[in-house]
Amino acid sequence: MENGYPILVVDDDPVTRKLLERYLKKSNYQVELAANGKEALQIYSRRFFPIVITDWMMPEINGPELCRRIRRQNSDNYVFIIMVTARKSKDDIVSGLESGADDYLTKPVHHAELLARIKTGIRIIQLERSLRRANAEIRMLSITDPLTGCYNRLYLNERLPQELRRIQRYGRTLSLVMADIDFFKKVNDTHGHQAGDDVLRSFGTLLHGSVREGVDWVVRYGGEEFLLVLPETDCAGAYMVAERLRRDLEGQAINHNGQIIRVTASFGGTCILPRKSSIHPNAHQLIEFADNLLYLAKERGRNRSLVEVYSQNAPPNCGCKAAAEGK
Asked: What is the spatial distance between Cα 125 and Cα 114, in angstroms, rounded to a whole number?
């Protein structure tokens, strides 16, 4: 809706400020006034304005410099800036636009032209917001597994190295838990692939609902294998998460077209404690260590959890041959 847009008016002439304020408030815009660019930046730091109307010649900070400083702030939201000036030469107009202004008006300002330029600005702002939302949706689709709603490997490859750099810089704890549904191939063979999809969706929902929103995150690593990334969580905490999930899944009845399907899962986890260790594994090493523990849990009977502090050596007696048996 056009009416109600916040507009910051910047002009060192009090008569011009009041005149612009009267035009804009009559059209139901929210208006705040500043006497120069310095005052405008102070106001702008406290409140975002999608539209700024600024005079060119002002003390302290002039209009072109104000435009440049607003643009340098790299706001997530676009600001439509209208430069008001008595200068009419092409060189002056080009100079104003190059400083970051989107449009210009020459003095004396005609109120109908002013409102028309503002409406143009609002259309541009709304188009920019629509584009940003569309890009955000495309981005989310690109990093999300469509079946389970969990993140995918692309997101993992981007985000996990960032998490590792963060914990190494600040000495924080991080845990990874790898989860794999036991005998998942039997579900597909017995009940069909749609039933298998129901099982995967149910497991993904269980994982999502069992971690801290906005802190932990869940990745569908591949097939029936999922990865939980748990910042600020030590091995004891990771083991508690894995055991809770294991018990919850064991007790869950999954309904597929009236058929009740019950499954279990095995969990392998690891944690890294930068304050207590000089070891700095990369993302691949940390995932591989958790994966080795997962297959060791499968070799020891499945439907169990193993979590260890990361070391440079793989867990002993790693049951990697279980990969052929347990899926």
From this structure: 17
Backbone phi and psi for residue 35, each to the nearest 5 degrees, phi listed first: -90, -15
Q: What is the pTM of this model?
A: 0.74
* In the chain, domain spans: 6-142, 153-325
By C-alpha distance, which of 71, 90, 73 is closest to 81? 71
Name the CATH superfamily housing domain 6-142: Response regulator (3.40.50.2300)
Catalytic residue list: 224
* Least confident stretch, 136-145, 210-219, 234-243, 314-323: 314-323
Beta strands in 150-275 (DSSP E): 174-181, 217-222, 225-231, 254-256, 259-261, 265-272
Query: What pLDDT, in 10s, does the model give residues 206-237?
Result: 999 999 999 999 999 999 999 999 999 999 99
| 233/307 Cα distance (integer angstroms) | 12
**What is the identity of the amino acid at 197?**
D
C-alpha span between 230 and 212 (Å, rounded)? 9
Q: Which CATH class is domain 153-325?
A: alpha beta
pLDDT in tens, 35-62: 999 999 999 999 999 999 999 889 889 9
256 beta partners: 259
234: its two tokens: 């030590």
What does the alpha-carbon distance between residue 228 and residue 176 come to, in Å, rounded to a whole number? 6
